[in-house]
Amino acid sequence: MPLYTEVAILSASLCEAEINLALAWGLSMLDKEDVFQLIESKSTPEKWLHGPKIVLPDYRMPLGCAEAEALRKVFSERNRLVHPKSTVQKAGQQKLGAKALKPPKLADLSASDRYSLLGKLRPTLTRICLCGSGAT
To answer: What domain of life is recorded for the organism (predicted)?
Structure first.
């Protein structure tokens, strides 16, 4: 489980850092810093789904696409690991809290999720930064 935990948390952190940097860069180059203040409070998957449209009007990431599903899965796992919910059991019966957590196995986060998510998203980051800088 430690490797799975590290992969999930670090993947989420990297995806969040990348989109925040790309949006901050692109929006600042377009003199839209105030828009960044609005989008900054959104969840990272929401930033990926909608944020780039502000800089790249033709940007589309359909809700059900592989990248969107991988982001949803990575952030769901990150939230489960970083914000665990307490449970209380008495005499073997759960009395309080969320349903019992069953830790996933590393295999549950496929190699494509672990290694290619950012690779799939990187062209978008590059386009945001290039568009914001005036280059094409």
So the answer is: Bacteria
Q: Give me the residues paired with residue 78 across strands.
A: none
In angstroms, the CA 136 to CA 128 distance is 10
DSSP string, the chain: -HHHHHHHHHHHHHHHHHHHHHHHHHHHHTT-HHHHHHHTTS-HHHHHHHTHHHH-TT----TTSHHHHHHHHHHHHHHHHHSPPPEEEETTEEEEESPPP-PPPGGGS-HHHHHHHHHHHHHHHHHHHHHHHT--
| Pairing mode, strands 87-90 and 93-97 | antiparallel
Say if CB 15 and CB 51 are below 8 A apart: no
44-76: pLDDT as tens digits: 999 999 999 999 888 888 888 888 888 888 899
Mean pLDDT, range 88-107, rounded to an integer:
66
